[in-house]
UniProtKB/TrEMBL annotation:
The lineage of its organism: Eukaryota, Fungi, Dikarya, Basidiomycota, Agaricomycotina. Residues 30-74, 412-435 are annotated as: Disordered. Belongs to the polysaccharide deacetylase family. The keyword DNA repair does not apply. Residues 192-388 form the NodB homology domain. It is a lipid-anchor; GPI-anchor. Its cofactor is Co(2+). It catalyses: [(1->4)-N-acetyl-beta-D-glucosaminyl](n) + n H2O = chitosan + n acetate. Coiled coil: none annotated. Residues 38-74, 416-425 have a biased composition (Low complexity). Transmembrane segments: none annotated. Its EC number is 3.5.1.41. It comes from Suillus luteus UH-Slu-Lm8-n1. This is chitin deacetylase.
Amino acid sequence: MQLQAFVALLSLLGAANATQDRHVRLGKRQNAGAVVGSSSTSQSSGLPTTTSFTSSATSISNSPVPTTPVGTTIPPLANITSGMATPSTVPVTATYSAGSTPLISGAPVLPTPFVFQAASWPTQDQIAPSDSVEVSQWMEELTGFNIPDISPTADGTCVGDPVAASQAASRGWWTCGGYTRATDITSCPTKMTWGVSFDDGPGFYTQELLNYLASKNLTSTFFVIGSRIVERPQVLVEEYMAGHEIAVHTWSHRPLTMLTTAQVVAELGWARKAIKDVIGVTPTLMRPPFGDIDDRVRAISLAMGMVPVIWTSTGTGATFDTNDWKVPGGVVTGPQSFATFEAILGNATMLNTGFVVLEHDLYPQTVDLAIGYTLPAAMNFTPSLTLDSIGHCNGIPSTNLYRESNTNTSFPYANSTSGDSSVPSGSGGNGGSSTTTSGALSNAIMPISMIVASLLAAGGSLLM
Ligand SMILES: *[C@@H]1O[C@H](CO)[C@@H](O)[C@H](O)[C@H]1NC(C)=O
Ligand SMILES: *[C@@H]1O[C@H](CO)[C@@H](O)[C@H](O)[C@H]1NC(C)=O
Ligand SMILES: *[C@@H]1O[C@H](CO)[C@@H](O)[C@H](O)[C@H]1NC(C)=O
Ligand SMILES: *[C@@H]1O[C@H](CO)[C@@H](O)[C@H](O)[C@H]1NC(C)=O
Ligand SMILES: *[C@@H]1O[C@H](CO)[C@@H](O)[C@H](O)[C@H]1NC(C)=O
């Protein structure tokens, strides 16, 4: 066990390192307008950049490998790996000027183009500090709301905090056991409807995805990160103006349950501000990074006017995570991620409702998987699927997705813990305590120091 854990540690360090290298390369390739912040910090070298790591949580099916889509630059599925050649990026297609009218009725016109001034923002990819004038103001939004007195978890993982994990039911902690509340959005209500979303952008390859979605008349929900928005504001404008839904995915992508209440407010507040500064509106939906939410984080989010959105759990412990985010780091391969997606579609046919799936637009591998494989597979699926954005499939009028155009005083809901809790049977959540801490481990946005801390917390039980 010790040896296996050590091998895994090396693999994940290598994975994170490789991804950081890619950021550096891309940063240089990208035109001068792009600001590459602290994500380009180089880390220690000499660790392996390829790995034979296999996770028991990864399902490898025998389904036939699809052929390469014709007439595209998408590589064959087998070539979508951590080491694949990075494709060139496509330029933004439209340039919307200040004063342009958005598609959302009642929303303000587009503001003056955003100019990033680092001194006015928290350090990119670091937990947003809580000792600022802005955060003090945002803290006032919690006044009058009952924020449960739940202690922060050690690191947002089950194995990292056994005491909190043992209280997961009363905490409503999704990560350990898949606990949700009536106020969470976790699916689309209509059977055979997929609420499509992409997380962690805007990225270098998002525009390519936007072009594809437009060509298929598809809309998606984008859960965007503040640290990425300030780098590529024009891509966020494109998403919004093309009719996609924009929702908050925090400033630095940390597990929110491990943060203090003021830090959670800071993480949500700075991402919300970045969105508002770039497109002029304030989202009413958010997604917690790694799905890591409990009743305290829910209450904070709802008090700040944002309804939590996670992805679907089947009730058998599986969640609808394609694991696409593990491909850039070499933890799973493109074919393995696609096999997981096929299993998700198979499982979706057995649900009484529609569903929501976790996918990402930050990396070339994840965008290639979406454009070349998962979206086409869903559109060709039998029985036929409806692809929709998450707010729309839930019947939320587009005006209500943003504070400035929302006219419904009972949305977002005021209260997080009233109403029924819904708890899937078995251990759901993002890598329940019986599996790995995958949810919080290998996402490349997490700094290596945190990955190491998580691994050390996981100890010898890793890979069991
Ligand atoms: C896919 O990978 C194979 C084997 O490495 C390589 O020969 C081929 O050129 C690659 N194809 C594309 C389109 O990248
Ligand atoms: C939350 O719900 C409880 C019980 O339903 C209620 O007493 C309380 O006033 C609600 N709080 C808010 C802020 O709506
Ligand atoms: C998309 O919608 C437009 C207008 O409704 C229609 O003309 C076009 O054929 C549609 N394209 C596809 C690929 O469905
Ligand atoms: C699909 O359902 C099967 C059977 O319940 C389960 O073992 C598997 O993990 C599920 N896979 C996904 C990706 O949901
Ligand atoms: C307002 O939002 C609530 C909660 O989503 C919903 O039940 C209600 O139907 C909405 N009212 C209107 C007028 O849209």
